[in-house]
Amino acid sequence: MGEQQHVKFPQEVLDEYAALGVDLPALFSAGHLGNRMGVQIVEASADRVVGTMPVEGNTQPYGLLHGGASAVLAETLGSVGSMLHGGSSKIAVGVDLNCTHHRGARSGLVTGVATPVHRGRTTATYEIVISDEEGRRVCTARLTCLLRDVNPSDQARVHTAG
Question: What are residue 61's phi and psi, to 5 degrees?
Fold first, then answer.
């Protein structure tokens, strides 16, 4: 989780969450699953979220990057963007994820870049493009999140996470 401390957040976002006593890098980390898979978020704003994941350790029996691993990276990045769009008064909950796998990756890092397709009051949709180290597209995904109001039990979980 220490790697998450290097995430680049806009200053106004850092200030908003700091005023609530929330550890923003921990809140927008890859979570337990993403940590086990080596996902690292390196840039995060509502306009663009960038993260990486190693291929090694995330392969299927043929030695190729597992499609489910690409889905984890995509959902992580799209969820972070959705939560940043929604702000501290909203929780982003994924309601639809689809992934198209274009080519296999056998080694190195893959990089995902999430950009908004739609940012509304109640939903946010992000396109996530995952590429290999040569810049070749490995996967294209789309995630739609429901943005729901934070309730007190959500805030308690956020403050105790990490």
Answer: -55, -20
